[in-house]
Amino acid sequence: MRLSSRLKAIVDMVPPGMKVADIGTDHGYIPVYLSLNGISDYIVATDIKSGSLNKAINEIKKNKLSTKIITRLGSGLKVLNLNEVDIAIIAGMGGILIADILEKDKNIASTIKRFILQPMKASDYLRYYLNKNGYRIIDEDLILENEKYYEIIVAEHGHEIINDNIFYEIGKKLIEKRHPLVKDYIKYKIGKMRRIIDEVSKSHNNISLIENILYKIKKYEVLLNESEMPDNCRND
Ligand SMILES: C[S@@+](CC[C@H](N)C(=O)[O-])C[C@H]1O[C@@H](n2cnc3c(N)ncnc32)[C@H](O)[C@@H]1O
User: Fold this and answer.
1) Which residues of the chain have pLDDT under 50?
2) Residue 49: what pLDDT?
3) CA 23 to chain centre
4) Does 169 share its domain with 155?
5) What pLDDT, on the 0 to 100 scale, is given for residue 233?
6) Structural contact between residues 45 and 69, judged by C-beta atoms closer than 8 angstroms
7) Domain span at 170
8) Of 20, 24, 46, the residue nearest 33 (C-alpha)
9) pLDDT tens digits, one per residue of 127-156
10) Which residue's CA is minimally distant from atom 27 of ligand 1?
11) How far is the CA of 93 from the centre of ligand 1 (A)?
């Protein structure tokens, strides 16, 4: 089975031998790949919508894995038992919804060791939520597929000091590990902010908004310079 680069990067974050839940599985490609490749022999595939879960059930049947993958219909972590899985994957949803899923069932979340999260938007909100709610980010990955960037955040329970708000927007781990895409990603984000300034200055004269964005661009540029420096000169 061949996965998209985004899904492949997600399954690559799963260490072998762990019990896994894929929350919001939809097509079911993640659980099927984990099972076919012997990465996990205890997998729960869940979705809130029966139509989506049925797609996963069909994919599981097609691959003759119906006795190996458990499927459950329901919202978020609610469908899991306490201590049932080691890892929860929550991918392909907005960062606000992912944070909401973690928040709603804290008792179950507290028994899951690791979370592989792939927000489609609002990754800054999700990183902030994690930081303020007893999680630390242990790894990140960045994928460029069909001209779109995808962020993958791996978190565990714990604490982390974030000394600059910019690291809610650009994952600190991406800078630390000198991720090959991080510089292009920062440039892409700067480009987006410059386009916003162009639009805002055309329609109304919102000086304070423009000043805020220019301030943010400066911070991104500092990060960009730092990520180009040799290790012994960096300040992260
Ligand atoms: C865009 S799909 C992502 C599928 C897959 N995880 C991926 O990354 O390609 C989002 C899925 O999340 C499901 N979903 C949305 N809210 C959910 C919730 N609270 N609990 C479980 N599943 C949810 C949707 O029904 C949908 O099937």
Assistant:
1) 236
2) 98
3) 13
4) no
5) 56
6) yes
7) 162-236
8) 20
9) 999 999 999 999 999 999 999 999 999 999
10) 26
11) 6
pLDDT at 131: 98
What value, to the nearest 5°, has the Cα angle with vertex 196 and ends 190 and 200? Answer: 150
Q: Is 142 in the same domain as 172? A: no
Distance from the alpha carbon of residue 200 to the mean position of ligand 1, in angstroms:
34
User: Residue 193: its pLDDT value, please?
Assistant: 95
Please tell me whether residues 177 and 153 are part of one structural domain: no
Three-state secondary structure call for residue 223: helix
* Ligand 1 atom 2 nearest Cα: 92
Ligand 1 center–CA 181 separation, angstroms? 26
Residue 202 confidence (pLDDT): 83
Same domain, 211 and 145: no
DSSP of 184-203: HHHHHHHHHHHHHHHHHHHH
Which residue of 13, 44, 49, 148 sits with most ligand 1 atoms within 8 Å of its CB, as the best mutation to test the pocket?
A: 49
Please give all residues whose beta carbon lies within 6 A of any atom in ligand 1, as ranges.
23-26, 46-49, 52, 75-76, 91-93, 97, 101
C-alpha 202 to ligand 1 mean position (Å): 38
DSSP letter for 120, please. Answer: S
Q: Count of residues for the chain?
A: 236
Q: Are residues 22 and 103 in the same domain?
A: yes
Q: How many domains does the chain have?
A: 2
Are 125 and 184 in a shared domain?
A: no
